[in-house]
Write a structure and sequence with these properties.
single chain; 5-stranded parallel sheet; two-stranded antiparallel sheet
Amino acid sequence: MTLKYICSAALLLGLFACDDVDSPIPEETVLPELTAGTADFSNYVALGASFAAGFTDGSLFRVAQENSFPNLLSQQFANVGGGTFNQPLLNDNIGGLLIAGNPNPATGSRLFFNGSGPERLDATTSTEATNVIPGPFQNLGIPGAKSFHLVFDGYGNPANLSLGLANPYYVRAASSPTATLLGDALVQNPTFFTLSLIGGNDYLGFATSGGDGSNPLTPQEGPVGVGFEATYNALINGLTANGAKGVVTLLPNVEDIPFFTTVPNNALVLDEATAAQLTGVFQAVSGIFSQGLQLQGIPEANANALAAQYAIPFNEGANRWIIDTPVTDENPLGFRQMTENELLLLTIDQGALANGYGTVTLTPEVLQVLGILQLGGIPTPEQANLVLSAVNGIDDRDVLDTEELEQITAAISGYNTTIQSVADASADIALLDLNQTLKDLRTGIDFDNFNITSSLVTGGAFSLDGIHLSARGYALMANQFLNAIDTTFGSNFIASGNRLNAVDFGTLYGPNL
C-alpha cells in the first residue's frame, strides 16, 4: 500500500445583498484601549528550541523565522513599549546550513508540497554556520536544543562541531565560544521572557528514532545539566532573578503529533486471497518452529504452545503490521503483530511496506518451500530456515511499541509536573497548556474563519515534517500566548483586537519562495 499526502484548498466567496433599505446600520464596536497590565515588555527575550526559532517544513529558513511565534509576539509587544527584537536570520529561504562550506547533513533544505507529497528543495543554502553574526539576539530559539543544552557552555563553540557537542545554529549566534544560551539571555537583563517547549527535544529525539537507543530520554532527576528538573529550575531561577515575568509551556504527547499518527498501524489492506496466503505463511512458520523445538527435545505440547503465537491470522480488509521485538524466552523468534495503540513513524519507507516490509518477503525459494509443505512434504533444515527468515518485521527505528510509549509518557508526565510546579509557585509566571492545545487540534480549533486541525497537510496547523507547526499554526500559538499573558498579568491584547490573523500567516512555502 502506498500512503500519500493529499492537499486541497477551497476559496469561499460570500455575496451579500440587502433589499431592505430601512435596515438599521449596526454601530461600530469600540474596542478597549490596549494595556500591558502588570507586565513590562520593554525587553523581551525568547528561550526555546525549534518551535521558538520558527522551524517548519523540516528546516529553518528566513521567512519561517520571520513568522516565528516570538517574532509575532514582539510585534504585539511593540504596541505597549516593547523594544528591539532581533533574530539570527539565515541568508535565504532554502533551509539548512553549511559547515566550512559543506552542506550539513543534519540540517537539510526545506520540504515543499510537489502535488502528491513532500519533497526536499533541490538547492543549497548560502548560510555558513561558522560565520558568527553579531548580536545580541532576543530570539534564542535553537533547533534541536534539549533542556540541558541551554546551560552547556560548549554548545556554541565551533571547535565542538566535529565532536557532536555543539549546535551549528547556536555557533553562528553565540556571543562567544564559551557562552551559554541562558547566559546570552541573562546578559540582556530581560523584563519579560518566554520559555517555550523546553523538554520537547528531551523526549522527541527518543521518539523520532523509534526508541532504538540512539537518542536516550533525559532523566527527570539527575545532576544539573543532565536531569530535567534541576536544569529547568536553574533556567527559571536565572530568568526571574531580576524580577522578569514570563510564560512557560506544558509539553504535548506524541499521540497528538502527526509525525506519529499519520501512518496507521492497520494500513495493511488485503484482499481475501492475499489474506489467506499470509495466514498460510505464518501457520507454516508456527509449524516449522514447533518441529524445530521438538527436535531439540521439547515436549510436543510445550512446543506447540510456544509456537502458536506465530500462527498470526490475517483477514480481508485492514490488518496490523508485524514488528520486530527483542528476542526473549517468551518470544524466541522476536516478532509479533502490532497492538492497537502502537505507532508507526512518518519517516517509514512506505514503498518497502508495499513490498513485504512489515509482513514477509516471499522469494521464489520461499514459495517453493511453502509448496513442499502444502503437499505434506518435509523441508530440509535449510529450507525451513528460509521460511523463518522470510518474516520481515518492521524495525525498531520505525515504530514506537508499548514499552517505548510507556517510557515517553512517563518522561512527559515528569517534565510537565516540574513545569506545572514552577508556574504554580510564582505569580510572575504564566502557564500555557500546549499539551491541551494539541489535543484540541485533533478535532479542530476555529481560528479566523478556519477550522484548523492536526491532520497532516490538509489540517493546516502542522507543516510537512509532521512535528513542527505551519505559519498558520505558529500564529495560533502566538495568540494562545497572548491569551495566557492577558489572563495572568491583566493585559488585554485579545480584547483590544491586538491578535494575529490566520489569513496573514497561512502561507504554504512553495519551491520558488
